[in-house]
Amino acid sequence: MTHALCPGSFDPPTVGHIEIIERASKLFDSVTVAVIRNSTKNAILTSDERVEFLQRSLVGITNVNVISFDGLLVDCAKQENADVVVKGLRAISDFDYELQMAQANRLLSHIETIFLSTNPTHSFLSSSMVRDIARYGGDVSSLVPSAIADDIATRFAIAD
Ligand code: PNS
User: Fold this and answer.
1) Could you give the number of structural domains in the chain?
2) 84-129: per-residue pLDDT in tens?
């Protein structure tokens, strides 16, 4: 049984995140999506909101669960008995940072990171872009899962 960990900030989850998680759920026996409460990024959504938005976006995928975690990714992986970390790579601009994290995590705990190439239709997409568009009343319905699109539009429009 191979158990994968899909970590991220998910502030908010996008269709790009969900596509990577869905693909991981087909490649591995089970997947834990971990909302990392990373202090270096000041999230707008609470971790409970991010977990709930992910759960609503992943309804029907039976081998995926969602948690939140505060601390090092490698400790989260240990706690969850994860065999591998799965991340999406959108473009070469993601590569340096993702490679550094993968190497640091392997040094800390020998855990392997597997990269899935993002669908090209999502390669421009980021949570920060969604936040910006929603903040100024733009249409984010094609950028975030339909189950949470209305809530994202409302939540980010009133956040500032
Ligand atoms: O969605 P993001 O913001 O690209 O996810 C980044 C995340 C949360 C996976 C990364 O910042 C992380 O692993 N944070 C946990 C802290 C940690 O383990 N840092 C050392 C890794 S080098």
Assistant:
1) 1
2) 999 999 999 899 999 999 999 999 999 999 999 999 999 999 999 9
Report the atom number in ligand 1 closest to the C-alpha of 87: 9
Amino acid at 110: H
pLDDT tens-place string over residues 53-83:
999 999 999 999 999 999 999 999 999 999 9
Which one, of 17, 7, 13, lies nearest residue 122 by Cα? Answer: 17
Tokens of 149: 């699109």
CA angle 49, 86, 73 (to 5 degrees): 65
pLDDT at 159 over 60: no
Question: Ligand 1: distance of its center to the CA of 71 in Å?
Answer: 9
Residue 29 lies in a domain: yes
Give 136: exposed, middle or buried? Use CB within 10 Å, 0-12, 13-18, 19+.
exposed
User: Atom 5 of ligand 1 has which residue's CA nearest to it?
Assistant: 8
Residue 40 pLDDT exceeds 80: no
Distance 27 CA to ligand 1 centre (A): 22
CATH number at residue 79: 3.40.50.620
pLDDT at 98: 97
